[in-house]
């Protein structure tokens, strides 16, 4: 027997519940995510203080959120690879390393955005 797909508000509610379960899982299992969440808590007031406009503040905060988003996706890749099996495989290594690289690149982007805002603030 096939399950009837949810529609409308029931679908939105189910998606929200699944998302909150994912948030709980990543919070419990990923120290990097918790550190990035702490960085976000620091970034919001720092962006308010540093930004010359609402848009600039949003970009500063968004750059930190992007790191967190990529971290979640990296964690998902790692979970899928680990689910396949514990044996070492070159493709598994590549998948995990590329996820890690994505987090690094997002972090470099965030650092560049924040550095540019700091330099702009000092030169203004």
UniProtKB/TrEMBL annotation:
Residues that coordinate or bind ATP: 11, 30, 78, 87-89, 96-97
Source organism of the structure: Rhodovulum marinum
Record's protein name: Diacylglycerol kinase
Residue positions binding substrate: 11, 24-27, 32-36, 71, 100
Residues the record lists as binding a divalent metal cation: 30, 78
Record's GO cellular component terms: plasma membrane
Cofactor(s) it depends on: Mg(2+)
Coiled-coil intervals, chain numbering: none
């Amino acid at each position: 027997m096939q399950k009837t797909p949810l529609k409308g508000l029931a679908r939105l509610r189910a998606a929200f519940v699944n998302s909150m379960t994912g948030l709980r899982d990543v919070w419990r299992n990923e120290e990097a995510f918790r550190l990035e969440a702490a960085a976000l808590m620091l970034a919001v007031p720092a962006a308010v203080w540093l930004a010359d406009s609402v848009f600039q503040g949003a970009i500063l905060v968004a750059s930190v959120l992007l790191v967190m988003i990529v971290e979640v996706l990296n964690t998902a890749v790692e979970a899928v690879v680990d689910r396949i099996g514990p044996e070492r495989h070159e493709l598994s290594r590549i998948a995990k390393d590329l996820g890690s690289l994505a987090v690094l690149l997002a972090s470099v982007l965030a650092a560049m955005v924040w550095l540019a805002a700091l330099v702009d603030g000092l030169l203004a």
